[in-house]
Design a protein that fits this description.
By secondary structure, the chain is mainly alpha-helical. The chain has a domain at 125-263. It has 12 helices and 2 strands; from the N terminus they run ααααααααβαβααα. It is globular.
């Protein structure tokens, strides 16, 4: 009798598991989007408070607990969607973890996610990777193997339409072309200014192409450690796509190429 009971229980559990509907990556991503929409509604309410001259950063303990729970739900659903192969979820998860205030471990995790989405053909992820992860360039180690591999990947992504073109526009954390990041936030209306900056950082595929071309113009050098006509071509393409030259690269680059040509 005991053996029969155990077998019956096992078969029942097995049948239940088989009949349980599998949640798809798209469904997990849709759940994450609903949570993100909730955050947006909350942000809109905070903007109204700021516009009315009230404190926009005052939270009750209950509101903080609810926000923490929503954030956990957002991250969990994005992770599940990403694990299932959803490139957009992988990108948004990297974007969430892309924060200079976070730990080095979190930065590396975000870099891994950007790399994963980049390998899946998402140009926006390659641009995000540059700002957070291309540390060799920051050290001016321009012939570093990882840096050169990154530039090669960026060039390859630019040679074809984005495999995830329907996902755009997508938010960026930084921009070399469309936001002057050196401009300070105003002392008044900080939340509104932050929102305006966030809106400006939601970029189309063409804008990400402009970003990628500008990054190549900025960081690529030839075997003599100098920019050349290839850099100028990247710069021209970036500007043709609407890139604003906040860094004054155009004049500096053209002058450097002219000087190099005379030597």
């Amino acid at each position: 009798m005991k053996v029969i009971f155990v077998c019956t229980l096992f078969l029942s559990l097995l049948f239940s598991a088989a009949c349980e509907r599998v949640v798809t990556p798209d469904e997990y991503f849709a759940r994450a989007q609903r949570v993100a929409d909730k955050f947006k509604r909350e942000a809109d309410e905070r903007l109204k408070l700021e516009a009315a001259g009230e404190s926009a950063f005052k939270y009750s303990p209950e509101q903080l607990r609810n926000a923490e729970g929503d954030l956990e739900a957002l991250v969990d659903n994005l992770k599940r969607a990403s694990d299932g192969g959803h490139t957009g979820a992988t990108y948004f998860l990297a974007n969430l973890q892309d924060n200079p205030m976070f730990s080095e471990r979190t930065r590396k995790e975000a870099c891994g996610l950007y790399q994963k989405a980049m390998d899946q053909g998402l140009l926006a992820a390659a641009v995000g990777y540059y700002h957070l992860c291309d540390k060799a360039y920051e050290r001016f180690d321009l012939h570093n193997a990882d840096h050169l591999k990154y530039l090669q990947s960026l060039e390859q992504l630019l040679q074809k339409p984005d495999a995830h073109g329907d996902a755009y526009p997508l938010p960026a954390k930084h921009s070399v072309c469309f936001v002057d990041e050196a401009a300070p936030l105003p002392e008044q209306g900080v939340l509104a200014a932050m929102q305006a900056r966030a809106v400006a950082l939601v970029l189309t595929e063409d804008q990400y192409r402009a970003e990628a071309n500008y990054i190549l113009a900025l960081t690529r050098v030839n075997k003599d450690d100098r920019p050349d006509s290839v850099n100028i071509a990247y710069l021209d393409e970036a500007e043709a796509l609407g890139c604003n030259d906040f860094h004054g690269l155009n004049a500096m680059m053209r002058n450097a190429v002219k000087v190099a040509a005379k030597q």
